[in-house]
Write a structure and sequence with these properties.
Length: 152
Amino acid sequence: MRKIIILTGLIGLSFILVLGPSVLAGDLLNGEEVETIASHENAMSCVIKDEFDNVVTQCRVSNPWSREIIGYWVEFYSSTPWTKATFKIKIKGSDLPEKTIISKFKIPEGYTGYTSTPFAITDWGDASKYGYGVVKVRTDVGDVTCTFDILP
């Protein structure tokens, strides 16, 4: 059985990984303490993945003039069935005009497991591209947050 864990990075970012059963709360992973996420018996996680399905903590901006899109995926997991979910990505610490990206889901019968939604951040010329993103996944059974850095 897989366990959902949080790994707090050295630069103060938090992101969530899915690891095998050999990693338990209180163990060290890459020098950082691991803790299991469970709320009212609902395990939830949120990670950012690249096009190769790798978990990432940095996302690059896409150039709209070249039409080359550098895309990413927010991957959300819930062990409890949910019927509504909102994925809200907020761009912070940058003067990029794109500030919020929202995806909404509604599933009448409820859903457990993994759900992914794509996103890209647009490059706006002379705007400061450095900053960070905060992803909040809000469902009718709980919320989870993950973050990433923005790079040019």
